Amino acid sequence: MNAPVATLAFADIAEGCEAGFERVISAADIDDFAALTGDISPLHVSDAFAQGRGYPSRVAHGALLTGIASQLFGVHLPGRDCLLQSFSMRYLLPVHAGDRLHFGAKVSQKADIVQALTVEVAITRADQVVAKGKAQIGFTPAEASP
């Protein structure tokens, strides 16, 4: 869980660069997110409620997935100098505790004039895309020397 933080500069990144990691979503992840955000919708916190709606168990919050996906930028691509400017996601399939997910990012556009990246994100379970989205990434300026 404690991956070293990448230190990629804008010049180090090209269109097509990719990064990714895997994570199993746990019941504790869902509980902790509900406690942190106050989103205690029974769909997220009650197996019985979720099962009554046709799901096998409670459903992970979409925003939990988005929050975990932010690791793609702040840790992997570009890492330390990342400034997340926007991030939009579409949730396509429900995620449940115990699901092993792959969080992947691929640079689809590089804007040299403003030093920004457009990054496509896909969250997959086995061969199913459960969520996908797009982020715009800027870079924090290096600290000026005195």
Task: State the assembly state of the protein chains.
Answer: single chain
Largest sheet composition: 5 strands, antiparallel
CATH class of the domain at 12-26 and 61-139: Alpha Beta
How far apart the termini lie comes to: 36 Å
The share of residues in extended strands comes to 25-35%
Give the H and E element order: EHHHHHEEEE
Rg, Å, rounded: 17 Å
Mean pLDDT: 95
Low-confidence stretches: none
User: What fold name goes in the CATH topology slot of the domain at 12-26 and 61-139?
Assistant: Thiol Ester Dehydrase, Chain A
CATH superfamily of the domain at 12-26 and 61-139: Hotdog Thioesterase
Structural class: alpha+beta
Strand order of the largest sheet: 1-3-4-5-2
The percent range for helix content is: 10-25%
**CA-based shape:** elongated
The CATH architecture of the domain at 12-26 and 61-139 would be: Roll
Number of helices: 5
Strand count = 5
Descriptive notes:
Strands 1-3-4-5-2 form a 5-stranded antiparallel beta sheet. The chain is 24% helix and 35% strand. Strand 3 (100-111) and strand 4 (116-125) form a beta hairpin. It contains 5 helices and 5 strands; from the N terminus they run βαααααββββ. The chain has a domain at 12-26 and 61-139: Hotdog Thioesterase (Thiol Ester Dehydrase, Chain A, Roll), CATH 3.10.129.10. It is α+β, with helices and mostly antiparallel strands.
Briefly summarize what is shown:
This protein is of the alpha+beta class. It contains five helices and five strands; from the N terminus they run βαααααββββ.
